[in-house]
Amino acid sequence: MTTGRAQGPGGSGLSAGPEWADVESVGPGRADVESAGAEWTDVESAGAGSTGGQPVTAGPGVKARTADTVIRSWCPADLEPTLAIFNQAVAQTTATWHWSPKTPDQWADYCQARLVAPYSFLVATRAGAVVGYAAVGPFRDRDGYKATAENAVYVAPDSHGQGVGGQLLAALIERSRSQGLHVLVAALDSTNEISAALHAKFGFHEVGRLRQIGQKFGRWLDLALWQLTLDDRPTPPSA
Ligand SMILES: CC(C)(COP(=O)(O)OP(=O)(O)OC[C@H]1O[C@@H](n2cnc3c(N)ncnc32)[C@H](O)[C@@H]1OP(=O)(O)O)[C@@H](O)C(=O)NCCC(=O)NCCS
């Protein structure tokens, strides 16, 4: 299985990464993933860009296999199902520290902003239905952070534990590397042990913790900052 440590292509700049394969990942449920790693095959590059709507996904170097999960770029038809996944987490979890659901307009803005390179917004589908998404967007709005992005992964509760989150994060890492990003940051509620395990599996390391900077459901929350460095460029590309 592809991991966060896998070497990918690109890495020379932020705005002109290699073309993306329009197919991507796939994989069956967790049990099959665990038992059939040898079945992964290389995906050929088939398209370009990160425009939504096309059946885009992984990239060169990402492994894929025929199965029942497809990873592709977000398109407008995904607005409602991805918003439903996010708003469920808003209402019932501390995975996100929003207290109120986002509106469709707010969500459209959020998604569209992540369809612009070097960022990405991927969805996972099974039998044509959206079961999860993963996105990278700006970490902080300063020029100096241009090679850093913050990622998020959300899977519908009835699809948890079936390998979807892992497939999404693997694809997101490969795409981010190919788009020229240097560092991914995951900002996790420190009690989110499942997300911590997911990120650790793909090479992220916890690099710091901010104590009691958040609150939700009447509790103070700590923010755990996890980092994955995507390449070993000694200096940033010229601006
Ligand atoms: C975190 C989340 C995305 C994981 O997605 P998932 O599809 O359930 O995860 P997968 O089945 O692909 O598992 C991938 C890895 O996650 C970890 N993981 C998943 N379920 C776990 C569990 N119940 N206990 C411990 N670790 C678990 C493991 O490291 C697992 O790798 P493994 O199968 O080799 O053990 C999903 O639980 C989710 O959407 N949670 C709510 C939103 C959230 O917390 N998002 C993260 C904030 S950015």
Give an overview in words.
The chain is α+β, with helices and mostly antiparallel strands and 239 residues long. It has a domain at 30-181: Gcn5-related N-acetyltransferase (GNAT) (Aminopeptidase, 3-Layer(aba) Sandwich). It has five helices and nine strands, in the order αβββααβββαβαββ. The chain has helices at 30-35, 79-92, 104-113, 164-178, 193-201; strands spanning 41-42, 63-64, 69-73, 120-126, 129-138, 148-155, 183-189, 205-216, 219-229. The strands form two sheets. A seven-stranded mixed β-sheet has the order 3-4-5-6-7-9-8, with helices on both faces. Strand 6 (148-155), helix 4 (164-178) and strand 7 (183-189) form a beta-alpha-beta unit. The longest helix has 15 residues, at 164-178. It is globular and about 45 Å long. The structure holds coenzyme A.
